[in-house]
Amino acid sequence: MTGQGLEQDSAAGAALMDRIYGWQRHIYDVTRKPYLLGRDRLIADLQPPDGGTVLELGCGTARNLIAAARRYPDVRFFGIDLSSVMLDRARRSIDRAGLGGRVVVAQADASAFDPRIVFGRGTFDRVFISYALSMIPPWQRSVEAGLAVLGEGGELSCVDFGQMQRYPAVLRGPFRAWLAAFHVTPRADLAQVLEAAARGHGARARVETLHGGYAVYGRVGGSAMSGSPNG
Question: Domains in the chain: how many in total?
Fold first, then answer.
């Protein structure tokens, strides 16, 4: 759905995100870099084909899209986000980077969108989600939505907060409370959901934990990927 046609639940989510990020958008990229770990690894692993297309679900300020566009100069990039204030910031950042011709962002719900309406195309070579699933209530639907728009041989990549298994409880508890203040909930079953989604699409899942369980990084796809579930 576009910003003019968000469903009621999506519109409520957009309003919440705008309240959370209304002032934070100005300092978001600087303050998040120390603890949104694994984003640069994800970008390095994308390896889209020359002339290909990449979609980010929950693109925020477009920090990842800009970094990826610089790394892959022959690829076009697209991003969606619910928050209009974050998208305003994203568009300004894209223009300042001189990437307006290759990076396009739009308002849409990552759990329910039609890329043909939003971007005029139905599939992408790569789709990625970076620290957004922990903020999307129907996050499993976003995983499926990402897989559904992959082209032949495409790949979905996700990185998000893990369960911090190797960290002492004295650190885990306060950190989780701080995340909750921003409506962030690490998904305990993220790895299992990615693996189940891969099986449903006849694809491969590669999931690992990073930094002692601080983050979960998963990739789903491969030559078996066709964009539609089997059966």
Answer: 1
